[in-house]
Amino acid sequence: MKYHTKVIAAAIFGALSITSSAFAEDPTSDTVVATVNGQAITLGHIIAARASLPPQYQDMEDSQLYNGILDQIIQQELLKQSAGDVSKAVQIQIENEQRIVIAGAAIQEIAKSASTDEAIQAAYDAKYASFEPAREFNAAHILVETEEDAKAIVAELEEGADFADVAKSKSTGPSGPNGGDLGWFGIGMMVAPFEQAVVAMEAGSISAPVQTQFGWHVIKLVDTRLAEAPALEDERAELAAGIEDAAIRAKLEEMEAAATVERTEGIDPAVLRDDALLND
């Protein structure tokens, strides 16, 4: 976070001033909210400063947020006026900040223009055009250390013991306290011996002991289903991000191809650490 954002945020909690003047009936970004030695501070300055604050400040009470930001901008304007002519280092930083802000606004406009509802729908349709539903499994298991323990549990279950109760009392796995419940999972999400056993089972059945590197498992297959493609709304943010990234990269490549860019050769990269050059 930049320094000016930090100090604005810090000042908000200490803001005690109360705004005495009322806004015009229809305020605009040019509405003057204060003057400092004749220099106008506008509502636009307040709104832009608020937009740059971290998320935790955005839900603060409006009058505290408004007064805190206004107080800080007034202080900044006083400091700016007292500084007189800025150094070359400061002027260079201003140029960099201006470039960053303008470039950021251009990027936002490119992204906004690209990620339309139609573009997102088209990307969704393309992504899932060849989607084939895969089998998913809902299972529970009881994990023990030895085959003998697993066989004893199978016998106990065959005699009518409740699977979840046995898992809670005897399973050494992390799912034990939840009755061994593993929820829904697809192919490739479990270790091979466990997966192979589940795939061969029928819903409602109990497996013979299955050995994996974690120990011996007794598995109950609760149910199976065919997975559906995710809903568009669940994919919207990811699809929009991909569309925007592609649009920004394409626009940059287009502009670079049309521009004349000449890089100076022979500059020693180590000079970027020589801060004294800023004052030459």
Q: Could you explain the architecture of this structure?
A:
- The protein is α+β, with helices and mostly antiparallel strands and 280 residues long.
- It folds into three domains: 3-84, no CATH class; 88-131 and 232-245 and 269-280; 135-226, Chitinase A, domain 3 (Roll).
- 50% of the residues lie in helices and 14% in strands.
- It has ten helices and six strands, in the order H-E-E-H-H-H-H-H-E-H-H-E-H-E-E-H.
- The protein has helices at 3-12, 43-51, 55-58, 62-83, 88-114, 117-127, 147-158, 163-170, 192-200, 232-258; strands at 32-36, 39-42, 135-144, 181-186, 210-212, 215-226.
- The strands form two sheets. A four-stranded antiparallel β-sheet has the order 4-3-6-5, with helices on both faces. A two-stranded antiparallel ribbon has the order 1-2.
- Strand 1 (32-36) and strand 2 form a beta hairpin.
- Helix 2 packs across helix 4 (62-83).
- The two termini are 28 Å apart.
- Mean pLDDT is 91; it is low at 15-21.
